[in-house]
Structures are given as structure tokens and as C-alpha cells.
Amino acid sequence: MISSLRGQVQSVGLDHAVVEVGGVGFAVQATPSTLASLRRGEEAHLATTLVVREDSLTLFGFGDVEARELFGLLQTVSGIGPRLALATLAVLEPDKLRHALAEGNITVLTQVPGIGKKGAERLIIELRDKVGALPAAHSPVANGVVREHVVEALLGLGFPAKSAESTVDSVLADNPEQSTSAVLRRALATLGRK
Fold this sequence. Notes:
The protein has nine helices and five strands. By secondary structure, the chain is α+β, with helices and mostly antiparallel strands. A five-stranded mixed beta barrel has the order 1-2-3-5-4. The longest helix has 17 residues, at 140-156.
């Protein structure tokens, strides 16, 4: 299983990117928001999962581990394959998806193309209890992952390690239930004022 990739982005398409790792270019299917965070020629770090089919090997990439875990969980539901699971994560952020499943919100789930009322009901029945088992965005483990990703991104942008770490810590102290992208935006805004 290929659980992560770190390498230089060779190209970014509408539904995939090519990341070169050790001289090998890996085509990685991803959501539009994940693809938008990648820049050609820059280093990327993606949480990944390899889907093996009789006629193909497809690598799916995510901006964080939580999205990858939800992607795998969605596919445990009958009728949800990797493409529909990826479409679900493209339409609904992990936190929004988790809340919709926990609250039984059919309206939110049917916003995803390919998921009708019956599909949404099946998702809720099968995943309502399981989404609570995944680490929540505000848990210490998830906070550590968010902190690590944001500090790494700031270091990649050339900020000194000490100021990157202290800024991220202060942003997380204000509100520990933020997504990686929200913490990064706030940290960049804070560092831009200094």
C-alpha cells in the first residue's frame, strides 16, 4: 500500500496531478481543492491510498490523513466506489461530511452528484456510528497532524522554524477545531503582519 507521497509536482490536471518521487512519476487522482493547493515544480506531500482493480491500479491523493480515512470509510458502503467517494469529498469538506452523517442530514448529502435520497439514507445508516470512531478534527492526534502540516508548509515558504511553530501554536490555541487550510491561512496572515 502506498500511504503517502512526497516529491516534486510535475503537472496538475483537472482531476489528477503527477508527483515525481525518486525519478518515478505517480499519477494521483485528487479533489479540486487538493489539486488547487499544488504548484508545478514545488514539493508536495499527499496522504494517499492505492485502489487495486482487476484492470487498473489507481492512486488517490488527499491533503490530510482525515480525508484519506473518510475516503476509505465511504467505500465500505454498498454502491459507493472510489470515484463517488472522491466526488463526495470534492463537494463536502471532511468536517461538513462528518457532521452531515452524524446528524442524518440527507439534504447536505444529496448535494453530491450521484447520491440520491436512498443513497444518502444508506450512508447515514451505515456510517453514522463509524464517523465518531475516526479522530475528530479537534483531537490531540489530529491537532498534531494539522500543526505538522502547517509548520512544514510555512518552512517550505521560507519562514524561520521558530516563528512558524510559535505562530501555528497561537492560531491553534485560539481555536483548536480548525482545518489545515484554515490554520495555514491564519498563520500566513499573522506572519504577513510581522
